[in-house]
Specification:
about 240 residues, alpha+beta, Helix Hairpins, 2 domains, 7 helices, 7 strands
Length: about 240
């Protein structure tokens, strides 16, 4: 009887999560689509002034990019939920992987004059390459997005008593302690206006949490509002 009740409880929780996720997805998809449709209609009906058309076209382009990024993240999260992923593990040099990610993110960092550095020691890890790469990318991308101008991002990789440690530290806006657990929830945003401005989908950290769990790892958040954030991942 107890097992049956626990199973029913889990099924109810899953059904509730799916319902909330569907509602959030509908809202998040509708927002950029409404914007795209509105600007396109103004241009189509000839209402827009010639000098405004390039501005509207740019807004349509930006909203389209936001929509594509959102759909890509939803697909990734769906694959992670279903376990529909390539599960071939290989020996990874985490230092080299971090350097590659920092290199790919250098244009974003340079726009805000943010200095991104890698420290630590050479470490090899047996993992799923494209997932570990995506986890590092999402964490570093957030560290840049939510940082101040002329800030810093420090990536550290090495061995610890609890396993291999990946640490990403920024000098950004910080996170209040009451948000620590919730930032890994799907579509959860501390500051919705800032997230929209930076182009965040609200799914990046949820994807990170799933990837970490698939590698039997754990995540810890340390932060202070206005001073920065450190996210530690043990693998």
């Amino acid at each position: 009887m107890q097992i049956r009740m626990e199973n029913n409880s889990k099924q109810n929780d899953l059904a509730k999560m799916r319902k909330e996720f569907s509602a959030n997805v509908s809202h998040e998809l509708k927002t950029p689509l409404t914007s795209i449709s509105g600007y396109a209609e103004i241009i189509m009906n000839g209402i827009a002034r010639p000098e405004d058309i390039p501005i509207f076209a740019e807004r349509i382009f930006k909203e389209s990019k936001r929509l594509i990024a959102l759909i890509d993240d939803i697909i990734r999260l769906s694959h992670l939920d279903e376990g529909n992923i390539e599960s071939v593990k290989e020996s990874l040099n985490l230092n080299e992987l971090c350097l590659e990610v920092i290199g790919r993110l250098s244009p974003q960092a340079e726009k805000k004059n943010i200095k991104a550095t890698l420290e630590g020691e050479p470490v090899n890890y047996l993992g799923i390459r494209h997932l570990i790469d995506e986890m590092i990318y999402n964490l570093c991308d957030n560290a840049i997005k939510y940082n101040h101008e002329d800030g810093e991002v420090k990536v550290w990789v090495g061995k610890s008593e609890e396993g291999i440690l990946l640490s990403i530290t920024d000098t950004g806006i910080g996170i209040s302690s009451n948000h620590y657990e919730r930032i890994f929830e799907r579509f959860y945003r501390i500051d919705k206006s800032h997230s929209k401005e930076t182009g965040g989908t609200g799914l990046g950290l949820s994807i990170v949490k799933h990837i970490c769990a698939l590698h039997n790892g754990k995540i810890q958040v340390e932060s202070q509002v206005g001073e920065g954030t450190r996210i530690k991942v043990w693998l």
